[in-house]
Amino acid sequence: MRTAIATVSISGDFQEKLAAIAAAGFDGIEIFENDFLAFDGLPRDAARLVRDHGLEIMLFQPFRDFEGMPEPQRARAFERAERKFDLMGELGADLMLVCSNVSPLCLGGIDRAAADFAELGERAARRGIRIGYEALAWGRHVNDHRDAWEVVRRADHPNVGLILDSFHTLARKIDPDSIRAIPGDRIFFVQLADAPLIDMDLLYWSRHFRNMPGEGDLDVTGFMRAVAATGYDGVVSLEIFNDQFRGGSPKTISNDGHRALLYLMDRVRRAEPGIALSVPAMPDRVAVSGVEFIEFAADEREAAELGGLLRHFGFRRAGRHIAKDVELWRQGAINIVVNSEREGFAHSSYLMHGTAVCDIGLKVEDAAATVERARTLGADLFEQPVGPGELKIPAIRGVGGGVMHFIDDRSELGRVWEIEFEPVAEDPDPAADAGLVAVDHIAQTMNYEEMLTWLLFYTSIFDTTKTPMVDVVDPAGLVRSQAIENAEGSLRITLNGAENRRTLAGRFITESFGSAVQHIAFRTADIFATAARLAEAGFRPLEISPNYYDDLESRFALEPDLVERLKAANILYDRDDRGEYFQLYGPNYGPQESGGFFFEIVERRGGYHGYGAANAQFRIAAQKRAIEARAPAFASRTA
Fold first, then answer.
1. Closest of 362, 599, 378 to residue 490, by C-alpha
2. Peptide bond into 62 cis (omega under 30)
3. What's the pLDDT tens digit per position in 71-97?
């Protein structure tokens, strides 16, 4: 199958769109008529520009309000079609999309429409042009691909075929398996789009909220499985109307689109093994067993400060790199790496972002296969020189230009801590273990416009699912939050999209010069015991307003004794129908302007599956108060 994307799907002028589409790896385009009309050149100039980028014009669209018209409108429709045929001849396009009529003048009737298409097909055949008929979900008389197919079938002309669009079928909740009965050679073109499930007018939904396959909630995979079952082996294209995409980076949106198509066809191939699909072979989505390490970039002074903060969370310094100024801090199954090298990627990251997470290491079954799948899906590989005694660890670029490394037990990678780090003697006064056992989740903050990109990145490479998007209330505005997680809960990443710079998340992005990890949540089996140990070590938690606890007791009908324990330790509480959730926050580390990053400690009881979203507004308000007051991160042990 060959791939295409409609020029209307991305921003920029015609040449910018073509450059981005070609660079992303598409074979061709659907040329949207308005893009051509805005082009400052002749049709043959546009055609040459397309060819110069190594692309083809695979579809000219749209042609509207054609079938079923009364006279004199019917005659005018054929005249309009002839003019479009002239234009298509100059452009070198041989397929035109005719969408079902929405005009109030349209008379309707399958036979009437079929007769019109039979005549149009005859005219088109004389020009070497084919006609594709598409059922718009809001078409006046034809709004179902089954009816459109019946029109095509009765027209019975070799130059008239069907165009299928996943949005028009799925938005109307039409069973996509009905497509399986259509002969594949009568399908001339397939357009794909996903969308979030929103109850609204179909036309408005389509024109503003479409997104890439895998980014929304429609069963695009089921749709494409049905198409593939017909034997269709033509072009698979993206037609995305989205306000956010129209203002986004042409390169990013094009890359997302190509990744989405490859991911979709890989899912179809695995779900329908008996169907031959010409898609790149790649390993299956990668199972992640846990977060192997989190690496911070810092200078020498801030590395010492960060080490002090980690110590007060119960971490101990467990190792030093054999050749670099890199320290390993450990507690339970958590490995925190602090890199204060003065050259290399971590140093570059520090110069750009300050002290921040620059690298995330994931434990996977097969590190090489992980990188191969990521590469096939368009991820950027990462390499830097490896010194004597060091391992070459497979890696790709991640959010905000950061790096993601992969560790497995199939090779020496599983012994990285033994090979690359030398044990260090415990500090004279090591902090007691606080009972932290693993990384519960990592929160990455980004501009809202980036969320769909990184959602697709994670779900296409790793064996994960997405949770519904929630609104996090900040006193200065809303932050959109969506989690990516695997079934076991060993990988949880929350994506937090800021829409303005006044929110805490927005300030963090601005001051950090880009998307980054804003907080890390560590899991404990007993949050009250952990809080007590931290208090003994001089740890000062984020102070939560007493008003929160007054409301908590009545909202959840909690026992007063439990509420008092929560209040005394500044622990937040949430509950759903499956279990309970407890949260304890540490101080923010970083510039006062941004608030910096912070650590969270959580305990999950029962089957609680969320992230305490209802508590976010109270946590943010407390953080803003603390940032303004700038209380010290921890008290002296001798105080």
1. 362
2. yes
3. 999 999 999 999 999 999 999 999 999
Task: Report, in this order, helix, strand and coil percent for the chain, each rounded to 5.
Answer: 40, 25, 35
Token pair listed for 388: 């004597």
pLDDT at 427 over 70: no
How far is Cα 139 from Cα 491, in angstroms, rounded to an integer? 44
Look up the pTM and report it: 0.91
DSSP for 107-169 reads ---HHHHHHHHHHHHHHHHHTT-EEEEE--TT-SS--SHHHHHHHHHHH--TTEEEEEEHHHH
- The β-bridge relationship of strands 465-466 and 477-485 is antiparallel
Radius of gyration of the CA atoms of the chain, in A = 29
Judge whether 106 and 66 are in contact, CB under 8 Å: no
Q: Is 348 helix (H, G, I), strand (E, B) or coil?
A: helix
Do β-strands 470-474 and 187-192 pair in parallel, antiparallel, or remain unpaired? unpaired
For residue 580, pLDDT over 70 is answered with yes
Q: Which residue has the tokens 């494409």?
A: 224
In angstroms, the CA 242 to CA 173 distance is 21
Q: Which residues contact 504 (CB under 8 A, 6 or more apart)?
A: 474, 476, 595, 620, 623, 624
Whether a cis peptide bond, with omega within 30° of 0, leads into 72 is yes
Joined tokens for residue 608: 């609680």
Which residue, 631, 518, 627, 614, is CA-closest to 572? 614
252-256 contacts, C-beta under 8 A, 24 or more apart: 252/453, 253/9, 253/10, 253/11, 253/20, 254/5, 254/10, 254/20, 254/21, 254/23, 254/24, 254/26, 255/24, 255/378, 256/212, 256/215, 256/452, 256/453, 256/456
Q: Tell me the one-letter amino acid at 31.
A: I
Could you give phi then psi for residue 109, rounded to 5 degrees?
Answer: 105, 120
Q: How far apart are CA 617 and CA 471, in angstroms?
A: 10
